[in-house]
Amino acid sequence: GYEGQGPEHSSGRLERFLQLCAENNLQVCNPTTPAQYFHLLRRQAKQEMLRPLVVMTPKSLLRLPAASSTIDELTTGGFRPLIDDAKIADRAKVKRIVLCSGKVFYDLDAGREDSNDGRVAIVRVEQFYPFPAAGLKDVFASYPNASQVFWTQEEPENMGGWTFVEKRIRDIKPEHLTLRYVGRVASASPATGSYAIHELEQKAIVETSLIEDSDEISAASEPEVSEKLAPATA
Fold it and tell me: Which CATH code is given to the segment(s) 7-233?
């Protein structure tokens, strides 16, 4: 997982698995809760059409209190390729939809709790492939006044899920929604070797995803960070 432990311990190379996806040959998932993980494995065991399953499992979620599930969540329901934002009280107030996948959700959720901003909805993409296009299209339609869609990831721009999801999101989003990327700039290395720099980069990514003026990099006063963080670009 992307946890500040250096280049050799930060990436499961999600992008390489996504490059292999075509003709319904694989399943690539990034579950964020124990219930999702359980139901995903159960679905894999019970499905009629057998296909390889690739699961991203960052270690930081093992003991993260926020990444927990109730008994009811484990014993009912099933795996959800998308998880919409259950904390939004008034969907008409949402101006920005932040799409993400994996553990970065918990950083984004904590940041929004601090800001208490009901204009930002955080939607988790739990399954990359097969891509949940129909479900995501319904999510977009459920926020009638949103004008922005962000894809937020921890990985550099040339890694992670961005290059895979960009075209797929553009193909289904309404014309009035602008699609933007928020994350680290393209890099030859999967991650920085400094934990302190990693934390600054992570904070900047979260703040940039949540602040109203998306073109303003919140960590611009930190040159070593702002140079490694890609601005939100259309």
Answer: 3.40.50.11610
